[in-house]
Design a protein that fits this description.
Elements: E1 2-4, H1 13-22, E2 24-32, E3 38-49, E4 55-64, H2 66-117, H3 123-151, E5 158-162, H4 163-181, E6 184-185, E7 195-200, H5 201-217, E8 224-231, E9 235-242, H6 274-284, E10 288-293, E11 299-309, H7 326-330, E12 338-342, H8 346-356, E13 363-367, H9 370-380, E14 384-388, H10 396-405, E15 414-418, H11 423-431, E16 436-439, H12 444-454
Parallel strand pairs: 6-8, 12-13, 12-14, 14-15, 15-16
Antiparallel strand pairs: 1-4, 2-3, 3-4, 5-7, 7-11, 8-9, 9-11, 10-11
Helix pairs in contact: 2-3, 2-8, 3-6, 4-5, 5-6, 9-10
Amino acid sequence: MFYLAQECPQHPDMALCEATRNGHYMEEAWRCRKDGSRFWASVVITAQYDSSGALRGFSKITRDITDRRAAEIALRTAREEAERASRAKSEFLSRMSHELRTPLNSILGFAQLLDMDSPPGQKPQIGHILRAGQHLLTLINEVLDIAKIEAGRLPLNIESVPLAIALQEALNLVSPMAADAGVHLAPLPALAADQGIVADRQRLTQVLLNLLSNAIKYNRLQGQVSIEVDVDQQRIAVSVCDTGKGIAAEHMDQLFKPFERLETDPNVEGSGLGLALSKSLLEMMNGSLTVQSQPGSGSRFTLELPFVHVQQTAGPAAAPIDNRSQILALAGPEVQGKVLCIEDNLSSLALIETLLQRRPGIKLLSSMQGQLGLDLAAQHAPRLILLDVSLPDIDGLNVLQRLRQSAITRTTPVLMITADASDLTHLALCDAGATAVLTKPIHVPSFLAHLDQYFPEPV
């Protein structure tokens, strides 16, 4: 349709002004057909000029884009629904993490105490409790990690990691498992001290442990697990090889799908998450995970990561758990032996009480509410405070901030105890002044090591 510059009966002057100024005008809006029905239209008005550059009029093109708009609305709605579902899933998993970790804290905590004090005849039964609890804890951690990766919220600390040290640490961790299964761990190949990889150290260890534990679990009696390393100028390939029964070709596409387990020995624990999580973690670190397998001849899982030369240091520096040794000097005789525990879960509180009984000189003060805990802290000036993050009246982070604002407890060591294992929560607590953060379920030896800093066992 063409209009003279002086006339454009169906469009306001603003549209013609913009078309004159910019050469064209575009809009999407409702329009009416001759029969009165409405449609969503794309309208383009273009200024027309003669050879001398004088404006002669305007052309208008109207297209019916009702179907396209309906498709765009449907796509946007679906995307918003998917985002809402993803947020709901993340919130649910976060809540479930706390709800599952809290009872596990009591189960594993008391089981560890029983294991430390039980007669030899009860060790096997307690071992079953510990192994089952640790398996459940591993499953919880893997589910949360998968959810964080899907949401793009899994933080990584990328650094240069010495390859030989990382591999040896992983082998040391799985050696008891290999001994129990009757599987031989081959020695590491010779590696140059400066050979390293670019990765998140904690997540790399997680991947290596997953691959090595799978190689042990799905091996044969008297089988072998070995590690092979191939290095070029840009990448390092680390292969974990086993002598198990192998994987059939038709099952290969199931290996890296979450919750997909191949038909294996029902006595072997597994969730079907480990390999999917390992592959995702490696891809986040600019790496990859591949597999080669032949039925009856074992399997080879190969991870690749960027290669880097690492600088050698005189020796590893063991970072202390806490550097506030001056606290002991500040504590006067009137506060000797006092520990304040602010915890609202009765089972967790009972575990803390049982653990503190191993230090007879300690007097325990307990509170199930944050405000009462603050009052007790101000009245008794304890040498150490154990503080849960989830409390019924005031959240633990707020309690911690108030403790640090008080002249009485500004320098008192505060060990935060939380069922939230996320790095963001740990970072927020440390920034607010936490001396250390302990994650539920409490690892008893680690808890006692922290306790020894403030209440050393008598020699």
